[in-house]
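Re-run requested by the PI after the first attempt was lost when the workstation crashed. Everything re-entered from the original request form. Ligand of interest: flavin mononucleotide.
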Amino acid sequence: MTSAWRKAAAAKRKLRPVAGDTPGFARSCDNGGVTAVSTLPAPIGAPGDGTAGDAHAAPPAQGGSALRLDLPPLTLGNITVNTPVILAPMAGITNKAFRRLCREYGGGLYVSEMVTSRALVERSPESMRIISHDGDEKVRSVQLYGVDPRTVGAAVRLLIEEDRADHIDLNFGCPVPKVTRKGGGAALPWKLDLFTGIVQTAVREASRGNVPLTIKMRKGIDEDHLTFREAGKIARDSGVAAVALHGRTASQFYSGKADWNAIAELREALPDIPVLGNGDIWSAEDAVRMVRQTGVDGVVIGRGCQGRPWLFGDLMNAFEGSPTRYQPGLGQVAETVYRHAELLVETFGSEMMGLRDIRKHMAWYFKGYVVGGELRAKLATVPTLEVLRGLLDELDKDSPYPGQDAEGPRGRAGSPKKTALPEHWLDGRVLNEAQQADIAAAEVDVSGG
Ligand SMILES: Cc1cc2nc3c(=O)[nH]c(=O)nc-3n(C[C@H](O)[C@H](O)[C@H](O)COP(=O)(O)O)c2cc1C
């Protein structure tokens, strides 16, 4: 990131209120303290490029008012994200097919599933699939996972030299034992020398192609071993274009509540780069609330959009001051499921693999809708597009949006667990000799979160 860009970004941020600028406003306004601009019911219909006609927008509940969030577009180096909303990288979810569905509703940034640096450097077929993008994906965003600066550097170089990405994110948030046991993911920022080495190398390689590099991290390993404060500063000083914080520790996994105070603290500690907030955004209203409470420059949405790609439409509407929200009836959800399955078949180049993949989305898509147990079970094991069509035809297509039952938390939850770590990992903040030797061999092929 150039210092000119830093100055421009800092100047832009000064133009908008940050959390606490308007004391009392958030309290007096349930939706998070955004500015009222209209109370007219929004038109019914799909925004964007007109291809998202499978879920209808419905006017807000009576008495709803249109409110504008005073947030400028998000600037990541040479990329401008008009609606400062980011689809969180999710292994097994945010492939080309799902990104397309989400993109059709809103104007955000859509990040790939994470790809392991070593697998990418070795050009495994799976890693090449993960980094592939549709021709019309204007910002080709890729998330890399790695533990060895040289391998991460080589992976970034490959992406740059072969012009395969417009934005690169580094994963420092994965809590999966297979990863943290090797010192990767959320365990890595504890070792300041290793973290600095990876981020500096990646930024240097990415800057050769003028590609902005961001990092995504958790608060730390556990409450006694927090890392986000130092890691944020190191990343900023290394020239990252933005830092995203998931407000949980690794040992929390997905349990409890995301700590938005930590996000607000990081936002304040890094006034000169964009800070993005992540964790527990289930609705457009939650996103607005996070921006108001923390002052972040953008929000990162993971589980909230599982089975609800139209959440990106809601987010765009909310950020633009429109009260319109997508409230699809069962028929529209069924059409989206079928389309998602077709896109997965195309993405994987195999009907069997596409259908195997769509099964995990069924419970999310139909959360809260009236669908019998037997039909749900059949949908969860659907073998072909033809069978899928038949099963979806059995649904009561006129069944309306169920309201609250379709909203709120979804996806992974789990319970807290002690984080698996390499031996003596917590003894010091720099790698010892044995750990240094282990690191190069620690690149594992994993999919995580
Ligand atoms: C199924 C799944 C896969 C995930 N994979 C990744 C990943 O590959 N890279 C990453 O940085 N985070 C990953 N995450 C974490 C999310 O990006 C996000 O940080 C987390 O879900 C919290 O946000 P949320 O409350 O909006 O879901 C994953 C999460 C889930 C649920």
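Saved to the shared folder this time. The two ends are 27 Å apart (CA to CA).
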